[in-house]
Description:
Helix content: 25-40%
Number of helices: 12
Largest sheet: 11 strands, mixed
Mean pLDDT: 92
Strand content: 5-15%
Number of strands: 11
Amino acid sequence: MIKFLTYIIKFIPVLISTAITFVSVFPASNERLAEEITEQVQRIEALEEAYASNRIAPVDEASFFAGNLKEELEAGIKFNEISFLATHNSYQSESTEEIKKLYSNLSSLTFGILPENKGDFKSETLTDQLNSGIRSLEIDIEVFDRDGDVSFTCMHSPNLEMTTTCYDFELALKEIALWSENNPDHLPITVILEPKGFFIPMEDMKKFSIDYADEMDNALRSTLGEKLFTPADMLRDYKSFGEMREADDWCKVSDMQGKVLILLHDCGATEKYISLDPSIKSQAMFPMLRQNDIERDCASFIIANDPAKLLKQKDEITESKVILRTRCDSFGNAPQERFEQAMATPAHIISTDYPPRTDNTAENYVVSFGNRTTVRRVVE
């Protein structure tokens, strides 16, 4: 009892500081969001002008491949034979000082279970990530519905962690499309969209539903246009993904260059989205399912975030010919064992919070397939 009281007394100042900091987070987050909304618009305008003036040179796509990319493309390497380094929370900019302090206090209260540096996480802009060779992105989605006027925005947690370079989702798509137009021979880009739940909703914020999924399809088609590579494009004459996978006939990568694939992360609307057309041919997004769904006819992309578990089921899953996504770390928690496990899996999308960066501010731990490469052949 005495030890418990001693503990309480010791942490009373931290508890008080945490409460005060929590209250200060809300106005600070909203102030930063207002700034970043303006910054995003200005950045896209500047990029449009720079691309139009030919002031941004295309990247050397082959330099990101661990091997001879030209030979692989000429030999007909298929989409399920290639592995991409991905970024997690690809939109998240530097946290406010209030959030950083909150994480620091919570780390003290949890004896370090929550890493003190959690608030230090930040991604570069989508353009910089693409310029660094990242070909798989992840964007969290929130829905606003103002009397039928639906819009999609991107942030981690409404009212709390809202720092983002991609608040306006359609502008984020435009940023990707602009980069793609300037690099027409790039390897296919996958964008994972994860509809988020919310702890403290903002005004007019709604949960993602099948109706909003339909709105999302429309936004993707209108914004990306011919850049969008749809499930129908992948399936060609096959009746289902099950049939295509049985034939082991994923599209050749050379037929997907310059394209963008949108993946709908498993969420509450997934099953209804699939039920609209079980073949998935009429949808704009590829539904991402879980490991226990690999035998379903509609299965294409599978979430397998635990690389240790994935390794145990390696043979079974490899035989199914699905596209696998795993994670090799999370910010503040990057054990070498998990990294090695992820690299040994047959995963096609390997997500990290520590990718190569254009600003050279990365810590000592940087994930790549060797020599800062970000694409390779899948491990067999």
